[in-house]
User: What shape does this take?
Amino acid sequence: MTITTLDTPLAKPLLDWYDRHHRDLPWRVSPGMAARGVKADPYRVWLSEVMLQQTTVQAVKPYFERFLQRWPEVTDLAAAENDAVMAAWAGLGYYARARNLKKCAEAVANEHGGVFPDTEEGLKSLPGIGDYTAAAVAAIAFNRQAAVMDGNVERVISRLYAIATPLPAAKPAMREKVALLTPADRPGDFAQAMMDLGATICTPKRPACSLCPFRGACEALKLSDPELFPVKAAKKEKPVRYGAAFIAVTGDGEILLRRRIDSGLLGGMTEVPTTAWTARIDGETSAAAAPFEAAWQASGTVIHVFTHFELRLSIWRAAIAAKVAMDDGPNDGWWEPVTNLEAQALPTIMKKAIAAAIPLAFKTSKG
Assistant: This one.
């Protein structure tokens, strides 16, 4: 959402607070750096914003730094192998982000000469960039007066205006409030200040209201308990799905892996053979569904919670004398040394499954 407000009365106290108390983040140009003439790098801003979706700052930092070491420019990422990008992303979750990250880098490199568009509209034309990311990159990287609203900003806005409408229905009204607050001067810093305020002061529990630059204007603080906001609709109970995972290990210490299809949950990631579970249906859970005959031994159950369901995998392990011949092609499986598992694009659920059958697998992996 692009806005035309020239000034907002609450922007100055927030920016003054941000100048003193901003977080130092590896993708951020701080106020002090900006004063020395340092400009925001659109590639770094975009990469960090994609990584930060549904993920914490602390979890993102090491991934962000490793990505920059391997692919310091968007053109480097565009030229990277898909499997290498997926492997580097493994563990961050929401793997469609990684697939779209690669597609977006290719679009910037091939269609825009390696230069990101500098408007919300231009950014939204790129693969995988929606309203939030477009606004964030436009504001932070290009100082466009765009309304940026993530979960932290939602919390601040809901309390500042005591918005009683439950989420997600309240989002449009919240976005309008953010648009009215966002100043023409320093909109990127304003967006980051709102995020920092929600992350460090206006926290979900026990907010430090006495330290907040909005404390004199906050309706929730005046009228009630700020912790009552944002109001959230009652959560539906997550369904539980069942399946099985099969960990086959040779005497030489190699494990059978395969690649998931590109579309759908965990698309393009590496896995051990599993049964055909999905978010909607259960898979087989017995050793009868194993990829080949062997002396399969039960190795417990692992549980992993996805956004919309909980998965419980029965783990089966087989020690085999020699590799079983597999069909050609990555989707049909290959044998990988256990010592090389950290280099594979294994999502967290698959790491849990392997560790249940081979407890020291990731302690001996070379990475």
